[in-house]
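Collaborator request log, item 7. Partner lab (contact: R.S.) asked for a structural prediction of AIG1-type G domain-containing protein to inform their binding assays.
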Amino acid sequence: MDSEEVMVEMKETGKSPDSQPVPLSVVSGLRIILIGEREAGKSAVGNAILGSEMFDTVGVRTREAVKRQREVAERQVTVVDTPGWEWFPSRGSSLGVRREIVRGVSLCQPGPHAVLLVVPLSFSFTKRERQAAEEHVELLGERAWGHTVVLFTVKGGRLKDATLEEEVEESEELQGLVERCGGRYHALYGRSRKGHDAVAELLEKLDNMVAKNRGELLSSEEVLEEAREKEEEEERRHQEEDREREEDLRRAKEALRELEMEEEKEEVQGEGGKATEESTRQQRGRRRYTDEKSDTGVESSSADPTSAPPHLTWSDLRAIRDQRCKTQ
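Returned to partner:
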Protein backbone atom coordinates (compact mmCIF):
# COMPACT_ATOMS: atom_id res chain seq x y z
CA MET A 1 0.00 0.00 0.00
CA ASP A 2 2.85 2.38 0.81
CA SER A 3 4.22 2.18 -2.70
CA GLU A 4 0.90 2.46 -4.47
CA GLU A 5 0.67 5.52 -6.68
CA VAL A 6 -2.47 7.62 -6.45
CA MET A 7 -3.85 10.06 -8.97
CA VAL A 8 -5.65 13.30 -8.23
CA GLU A 9 -9.24 12.67 -9.25
CA MET A 10 -11.06 14.65 -6.58
CA LYS A 11 -14.51 15.65 -7.72
CA GLU A 12 -14.91 19.43 -8.05
CA THR A 13 -18.23 21.23 -8.38
CA GLY A 14 -18.39 23.06 -11.69
CA LYS A 15 -14.73 22.22 -12.49
CA SER A 16 -12.99 19.56 -14.55
CA PRO A 17 -10.33 17.33 -12.95
CA ASP A 18 -6.72 18.45 -13.19
CA SER A 19 -5.35 17.61 -16.60
CA GLN A 20 -1.95 16.77 -15.10
CA PRO A 21 -2.48 14.70 -11.93
CA VAL A 22 0.38 14.66 -9.45
CA PRO A 23 1.50 11.13 -8.54
CA LEU A 24 2.50 10.58 -4.93
CA SER A 25 3.01 7.56 -2.76
CA VAL A 26 0.16 7.09 -0.34
CA VAL A 27 1.25 8.07 3.18
CA SER A 28 1.58 5.17 5.58
CA GLY A 29 -0.06 7.15 8.37
CA LEU A 30 -3.06 9.37 7.72
CA ARG A 31 -3.96 12.05 10.30
CA ILE A 32 -7.43 13.58 10.27
CA ILE A 33 -9.09 16.23 12.45
CA LEU A 34 -12.88 16.54 12.62
CA ILE A 35 -14.56 19.91 13.14
CA GLY A 36 -18.19 20.99 12.94
CA GLU A 37 -21.08 22.43 14.86
CA ARG A 38 -22.55 20.67 17.85
CA GLU A 39 -24.49 17.48 17.07
CA ALA A 40 -23.22 17.41 13.49
CA GLY A 41 -22.23 13.76 13.93
CA LYS A 42 -18.44 14.15 14.22
CA SER A 43 -17.98 11.32 16.73
CA ALA A 44 -20.06 8.98 14.57
CA VAL A 45 -17.92 9.92 11.58
CA GLY A 46 -14.78 9.12 13.55
CA ASN A 47 -16.16 5.70 14.46
CA ALA A 48 -17.10 5.03 10.83
CA ILE A 49 -13.60 5.90 9.59
CA LEU A 50 -11.86 3.75 12.21
CA GLY A 51 -14.39 0.94 11.86
CA SER A 52 -14.91 0.71 15.61
CA GLU A 53 -16.83 2.40 18.41
CA MET A 54 -13.84 4.39 19.64
CA PHE A 55 -15.65 7.68 20.25
CA ASP A 56 -18.68 8.11 22.51
CA THR A 57 -21.75 8.96 20.43
CA VAL A 58 -24.89 8.26 22.49
CA GLY A 59 -25.93 11.06 24.84
CA VAL A 60 -22.34 12.20 25.40
CA ARG A 61 -21.20 15.63 24.34
CA THR A 62 -17.59 16.02 23.26
CA ARG A 63 -16.08 18.68 25.52
CA GLU A 64 -12.41 18.40 24.64
CA ALA A 65 -10.28 17.22 21.74
CA VAL A 66 -9.84 13.43 21.74
CA LYS A 67 -7.43 11.33 19.66
CA ARG A 68 -8.03 7.74 18.56
CA GLN A 69 -5.85 5.53 16.35
CA ARG A 70 -6.42 2.28 14.53
CA GLU A 71 -5.08 0.35 11.58
CA VAL A 72 -7.38 0.79 8.60
CA ALA A 73 -6.69 -0.85 5.24
CA GLU A 74 -3.18 -1.85 6.35
CA ARG A 75 -2.11 1.59 7.52
CA GLN A 76 -2.29 3.62 10.70
CA VAL A 77 -5.11 6.17 10.72
CA THR A 78 -5.36 8.85 13.43
CA VAL A 79 -8.63 10.70 13.98
CA VAL A 80 -9.04 13.65 16.35
CA ASP A 81 -12.57 14.56 17.40
CA THR A 82 -13.20 18.11 18.68
CA PRO A 83 -16.07 19.91 20.47
CA GLY A 84 -18.72 21.44 18.24
CA TRP A 85 -19.59 25.09 18.28
CA GLU A 86 -22.97 26.24 19.51
CA TRP A 87 -25.75 27.83 17.47
CA PHE A 88 -25.64 30.94 19.65
CA PRO A 89 -22.29 30.78 21.47
CA SER A 90 -21.38 33.11 24.29
CA ARG A 91 -17.96 34.66 24.34
CA GLY A 92 -16.73 32.18 26.96
CA SER A 93 -18.07 28.98 25.37
CA SER A 94 -16.93 30.03 21.90
CA LEU A 95 -13.39 30.65 23.18
CA GLY A 96 -13.29 27.23 24.82
CA VAL A 97 -14.34 25.45 21.62
CA ARG A 98 -11.81 27.40 19.57
CA ARG A 99 -9.00 26.51 21.92
CA GLU A 100 -9.92 22.82 21.82
CA ILE A 101 -9.99 22.81 18.01
CA VAL A 102 -6.53 24.33 17.93
CA ARG A 103 -5.33 21.92 20.63
CA GLY A 104 -6.67 19.08 18.50
CA VAL A 105 -4.10 19.97 15.86
CA SER A 106 -1.33 19.46 18.42
CA LEU A 107 -2.61 15.90 18.93
CA CYS A 108 -1.76 15.21 15.28
CA GLN A 109 1.97 15.88 15.50
CA PRO A 110 3.61 17.01 13.33
CA GLY A 111 0.25 18.02 11.87
CA PRO A 112 -2.93 16.72 10.18
CA HIS A 113 -3.10 15.79 6.53
CA ALA A 114 -6.82 16.50 6.33
CA VAL A 115 -9.56 18.54 7.97
CA LEU A 116 -13.06 17.10 7.71
CA LEU A 117 -15.65 19.85 8.04
CA VAL A 118 -18.73 17.88 9.13
CA VAL A 119 -22.04 19.42 8.02
CA PRO A 120 -25.40 17.73 8.72
CA LEU A 121 -27.95 17.79 5.90
CA SER A 122 -30.84 17.54 8.33
CA PHE A 123 -31.88 21.19 7.98
CA SER A 124 -31.57 24.17 5.71
CA PHE A 125 -27.99 25.44 5.65
CA THR A 126 -28.07 29.21 6.21
CA LYS A 127 -25.62 32.03 5.72
CA ARG A 128 -25.02 32.12 9.45
CA GLU A 129 -24.01 28.42 9.52
CA ARG A 130 -21.67 29.00 6.60
CA GLN A 131 -19.99 31.97 8.28
CA ALA A 132 -19.51 30.00 11.50
CA ALA A 133 -17.99 27.09 9.59
CA GLU A 134 -15.60 29.36 7.69
CA GLU A 135 -14.50 31.13 10.87
CA HIS A 136 -13.63 27.83 12.55
CA VAL A 137 -11.75 26.46 9.55
CA GLU A 138 -9.68 29.65 9.48
CA LEU A 139 -8.65 29.02 13.08
CA LEU A 140 -6.21 26.62 11.47
CA GLY A 141 -4.88 29.28 9.12
CA GLU A 142 -5.66 30.30 5.55
CA ARG A 143 -3.77 27.25 4.24
CA ALA A 144 -6.33 25.00 5.95
CA TRP A 145 -8.74 25.40 3.03
CA GLY A 146 -6.35 23.41 0.84
CA HIS A 147 -6.59 20.51 3.31
CA THR A 148 -10.32 20.59 3.98
CA VAL A 149 -13.12 18.37 2.69
CA VAL A 150 -16.78 19.06 3.45
CA LEU A 151 -18.28 15.87 4.82
CA PHE A 152 -22.07 15.76 4.81
CA THR A 153 -23.81 13.54 7.32
CA VAL A 154 -27.10 12.42 5.80
CA LYS A 155 -29.96 10.85 7.70
CA GLY A 156 -32.00 8.16 6.00
CA GLY A 157 -34.46 9.57 3.50
CA ARG A 158 -32.99 13.08 3.52
CA LEU A 159 -32.06 12.83 -0.17
CA LYS A 160 -35.07 10.78 -1.24
CA ASP A 161 -36.00 13.08 -4.11
CA ALA A 162 -32.58 14.53 -4.91
CA THR A 163 -28.95 13.55 -5.28
CA LEU A 164 -26.19 14.99 -3.13
CA GLU A 165 -24.93 16.97 -6.12
CA GLU A 166 -28.37 18.51 -6.65
CA GLU A 167 -28.64 19.36 -2.95
CA VAL A 168 -25.34 21.25 -3.08
CA GLU A 169 -26.10 23.02 -6.34
CA GLU A 170 -29.50 24.19 -5.12
CA SER A 171 -28.05 25.82 -1.99
CA GLU A 172 -26.02 28.97 -2.52
CA GLU A 173 -24.48 28.69 0.93
CA LEU A 174 -23.51 25.01 0.57
CA GLN A 175 -22.08 25.65 -2.86
CA GLY A 176 -20.07 28.61 -1.57
CA LEU A 177 -18.66 26.54 1.30
CA VAL A 178 -17.73 23.65 -0.99
CA GLU A 179 -16.00 26.05 -3.37
CA ARG A 180 -13.86 27.38 -0.50
CA CYS A 181 -12.68 23.76 -0.09
CA GLY A 182 -11.65 23.46 -3.73
CA GLY A 183 -14.90 21.72 -4.67
CA ARG A 184 -14.19 18.74 -2.38
CA TYR A 185 -17.12 17.08 -0.61
CA HIS A 186 -18.36 13.66 0.38
CA ALA A 187 -21.29 12.14 2.25
CA LEU A 188 -21.76 9.50 4.90
CA TYR A 189 -25.28 8.15 5.26
CA GLY A 190 -27.07 7.06 8.39
CA ARG A 191 -27.95 3.83 6.61
CA SER A 192 -25.27 2.34 4.42
CA ARG A 193 -26.34 1.71 0.87
CA LYS A 194 -25.97 -1.83 -0.36
CA GLY A 195 -22.73 -2.41 -2.25
CA HIS A 196 -21.45 1.06 -1.43
CA ASP A 197 -18.43 1.65 0.84
CA ALA A 198 -18.65 5.36 1.58
CA VAL A 199 -15.71 5.25 4.03
CA ALA A 200 -13.38 3.65 1.46
CA GLU A 201 -14.38 6.33 -1.06
CA LEU A 202 -13.73 9.03 1.54
CA LEU A 203 -10.24 7.72 2.31
CA GLU A 204 -9.52 7.58 -1.40
CA LYS A 205 -10.53 11.23 -1.76
CA LEU A 206 -8.32 12.14 1.17
CA ASP A 207 -5.39 10.33 -0.43
CA ASN A 208 -6.02 12.24 -3.66
CA MET A 209 -6.02 15.53 -1.75
CA VAL A 210 -2.76 14.61 0.00
CA ALA A 211 -1.28 13.81 -3.40
CA LYS A 212 -2.43 17.14 -4.80
CA ASN A 213 -0.82 18.89 -1.82
CA ARG A 214 2.39 16.93 -2.56
CA GLY A 215 2.32 15.43 0.90
CA GLU A 216 2.34 18.77 2.71
CA LEU A 217 0.39 18.91 5.94
CA LEU A 218 -0.86 21.56 8.33
CA SER A 219 2.06 22.21 10.62
CA SER A 220 0.91 21.96 14.24
CA GLU A 221 3.61 24.40 15.29
CA GLU A 222 2.55 27.02 12.75
CA VAL A 223 -1.15 26.61 13.56
CA LEU A 224 -0.52 26.94 17.32
CA GLU A 225 1.67 30.03 16.86
CA GLU A 226 -0.84 31.74 14.57
CA ALA A 227 -3.71 30.85 16.92
CA ARG A 228 -1.78 32.28 19.86
CA GLU A 229 -1.23 35.56 18.00
CA LYS A 230 -4.90 35.73 16.99
CA GLU A 231 -6.04 35.05 20.55
CA GLU A 232 -3.75 37.75 21.93
CA GLU A 233 -5.04 40.21 19.34
CA GLU A 234 -8.64 39.28 20.14
CA GLU A 235 -7.96 39.68 23.85
CA ARG A 236 -6.47 43.14 23.24
CA ARG A 237 -9.54 44.06 21.22
CA HIS A 238 -11.88 42.86 23.99
CA GLN A 239 -9.87 44.81 26.57
CA GLU A 240 -10.09 47.94 24.44
CA GLU A 241 -13.85 47.43 24.06
CA ASP A 242 -14.15 47.00 27.84
CA ARG A 243 -12.19 50.22 28.41
CA GLU A 244 -14.42 52.07 25.95
CA ARG A 245 -17.54 50.77 27.71
CA GLU A 246 -16.14 51.81 31.09
CA GLU A 247 -15.33 55.27 29.73
CA ASP A 248 -18.84 55.59 28.26
CA LEU A 249 -20.27 54.55 31.61
CA ARG A 250 -18.11 57.09 33.44
CA ARG A 251 -19.23 59.86 31.10
CA ALA A 252 -22.85 58.83 31.48
CA LYS A 253 -22.56 58.92 35.28
CA GLU A 254 -20.87 62.32 35.14
CA ALA A 255 -23.57 63.69 32.87
CA LEU A 256 -26.21 62.31 35.24
CA ARG A 257 -24.56 64.00 38.23
CA GLU A 258 -24.45 67.31 36.35
CA LEU A 259 -28.12 66.94 35.49
CA GLU A 260 -29.00 66.22 39.12
CA MET A 261 -27.01 69.25 40.30
CA GLU A 262 -28.78 71.43 37.76
CA GLU A 263 -32.16 70.18 38.93
CA GLU A 264 -31.20 70.83 42.56
CA LYS A 265 -30.11 74.35 41.63
CA GLU A 266 -33.43 75.00 39.94
CA GLU A 267 -35.25 73.70 43.00
CA VAL A 268 -33.24 75.98 45.28
CA GLN A 269 -33.96 78.94 43.04
CA GLY A 270 -37.62 78.04 43.06
CA GLU A 271 -37.64 77.82 46.87
CA GLY A 272 -35.85 81.16 47.00
CA GLY A 273 -38.60 82.72 44.93
CA LYS A 274 -41.20 81.30 47.29
CA ALA A 275 -39.28 82.69 50.24
CA THR A 276 -39.21 86.12 48.63
CA GLU A 277 -42.96 85.95 48.04
CA GLU A 278 -43.51 84.90 51.66
CA SER A 279 -41.34 87.80 52.85
CA THR A 280 -43.40 90.20 50.76
CA ARG A 281 -46.63 88.93 52.33
CA GLN A 282 -45.10 89.30 55.79
CA GLN A 283 -44.11 92.88 55.08
CA ARG A 284 -47.64 93.61 53.90
CA GLY A 285 -48.97 92.06 57.10
CA ARG A 286 -46.67 94.32 59.15
CA ARG A 287 -47.98 97.39 57.28
CA ARG A 288 -51.60 96.34 57.80
CA TYR A 289 -50.95 95.83 61.51
CA THR A 290 -49.42 99.30 61.79
CA ASP A 291 -52.34 100.88 59.90
CA GLU A 292 -54.86 99.12 62.12
CA LYS A 293 -53.14 100.38 65.25
CA SER A 294 -53.16 103.89 63.86
CA ASP A 295 -56.89 103.65 63.11
CA THR A 296 -57.65 102.65 66.72
CA GLY A 297 -55.83 105.71 68.19
CA VAL A 298 -52.62 103.98 69.22
CA GLU A 299 -49.81 106.46 68.77
CA SER A 300 -46.74 105.52 66.83
CA SER A 301 -43.23 105.92 68.10
CA SER A 302 -42.80 109.08 66.04
CA ALA A 303 -45.73 110.70 67.91
CA ASP A 304 -44.69 109.52 71.35
CA PRO A 305 -41.06 108.49 71.72
CA THR A 306 -41.73 107.13 75.24
CA SER A 307 -44.35 104.60 74.06
CA ALA A 308 -42.79 102.40 71.37
CA PRO A 309 -44.92 99.79 69.55
CA PRO A 310 -44.62 96.26 70.90
CA HIS A 311 -42.05 93.80 69.31
CA LEU A 312 -43.64 91.66 66.59
CA THR A 313 -42.42 88.13 65.79
CA TRP A 314 -42.97 86.28 62.48
CA SER A 315 -45.54 84.13 64.26
CA ASP A 316 -47.42 87.25 65.30
CA LEU A 317 -47.46 88.49 61.72
CA ARG A 318 -48.69 85.16 60.38
CA ALA A 319 -51.47 85.13 62.98
CA ILE A 320 -52.48 88.64 61.96
CA ARG A 321 -52.52 87.68 58.32
CA ASP A 322 -54.59 84.59 58.94
CA GLN A 323 -57.03 86.53 61.09
CA ARG A 324 -57.53 89.17 58.39
CA CYS A 325 -58.16 86.46 55.81
CA LYS A 326 -60.91 85.00 57.98
CA THR A 327 -62.65 88.34 58.51
CA GLN A 328 -62.50 89.45 54.88
